Amino acid sequence: MSTNTSGTLFLIPSALASGSEQAVTTPQVVEVLRRVRCFFVENERSARRFISALKIGVDIGALELYEWHKRSDFQSLDAPLKKLLSGTDFGIISEAGLPAVADPGAQIVAWAHRHGVAVRPLTGASSIFLTLMASGLNGQSFCFHGYLPIEKEARSRKIREIEQAARQGNAQIFMETPYRNNALLDAILKQVEENLQLCIGVNLTAADEWVFTQSVKKWKQSPPDLHKKPAIFILGKPPA
Amino acid sequence: MSTNTSGTLFLIPSALASGSEQAVTTPQVVEVLRRVRCFFVENERSARRFISALKIGVDIGALELYEWHKRSDFQSLDAPLKKLLSGTDFGIISEAGLPAVADPGAQIVAWAHRHGVAVRPLTGASSIFLTLMASGLNGQSFCFHGYLPIEKEARSRKIREIEQAARQGNAQIFMETPYRNNALLDAILKQVEENLQLCIGVNLTAADEWVFTQSVKKWKQSPPDLHKKPAIFILGKPPA
């Protein structure tokens, strides 16, 4: 599916939590990072910090990093994309977890497919999928909604839509910017039917990570403080 | 969230492709496998083969494996669940990839949450998420539908439903038993609007893996042979 002359585009998962880099990075990712010198990155500093924390002998100063985030202009990537096309391997590294899943990167991947560049996704940490595995909810059929709307009325409508879908039995996954987590949890606990199951996954891969699932009713009795803690929410029903 | 006396339930990803075990397994999983002796497994033989292929010095013969798959009776797990509750750590290993995501395990996890047992999901390979990352389609909002119906009319209806959702812009992920992949691809190519994008991910993590996205129209011109190859399908639109 790829032309013979272009480089390969590697999708490189980064770590979710500082200190977990070595524990969650596969030998395959280490091997690619030892070899690839050019990267599209969501944030230069965190990409350098991630590679550096792996302690695999990469000369960080010699890397070519091209920032790419949701506000970037795609034309700014003109030079590196030409370089990729003419044979240089590139990686994509987003700020936390899997590039192009709830993170930037998909536009570069789509460009690669249009130009016959081989795309190779590498295994790594994702708070979304770690929480889903550990939820005990329906991993046979699920939807991810990304970040919920900020505006209160729009958020409330979206929660109603998610609740309705969760009642059908499919796991409904969503998230929020960490400093708004408590407001979102509050809205869920006020609004959602008490018998539905709510899974919350917090600080995944960090030393103090936890994932726990119980009914909305039980969460109401002692809601956790999620302020500024990265969290994933899943609404659903327990498996039959 | 856990009681102090119970063991921990680890969700242990296995490899997707024979020969890839060492490349895609994180140091964290290796550390847990060196320590944990009791496992719920989808299939005894493949669990042993996976651990054995890692070459990490585990005495395979000394492991306690309890088979658990979708046709199992939950009461058959009575003895090991009691053991978990009274302090022994357990792992769950499914046949390929992440336990409890398009694989058995969720009922055991749900039981753990009901009994206050700590659940720890570990990072690893998933053909679903590797294909999604590499699709260039919408990783900000997506649905996973699992295996499509076998019966032709029901499958056709489900494909129509998926197509309609894909037109809204959300990535729609689904799969099929490998020996029916060509029939599914044929149905998609006959039925789905030509301008929608179809991503196909094949043999993920194997030496001959590939992921490629193009319009249904282009796939029609030279449909790949997917017979007996593990594949993930994603219908969607390219990012704006």
TrEMBL record, chains A, B:
Enzyme class: transferase
Domain Tetrapyrrole methylase, residue spans: 26-216
Keywords tagged on the record: Cytoplasm, Methyltransferase, rRNA processing, S-adenosyl-L-methionine, Transferase
Entry EC no(s): 2.1.1.198
Any one GO biological process: rRNA processing
Protein's organism: Thermonema lapsum
Name by which UniProt lists this protein: 16S rRNA (Cytidine1402-2'-O)-methyltransferase
Record GO terms (molecular function): methyltransferase activity
A Pfam family it matches: TP_methylase
UniProt-listed InterPro entries: 4pyrrol_Mease, 4pyrrol_Methylase_sf, 4pyrrole_Mease_sub1, 4pyrrole_Mease_sub2, rRNA_ssu_MeTfrase_I
This protein's record includes keyword Acetylation: no
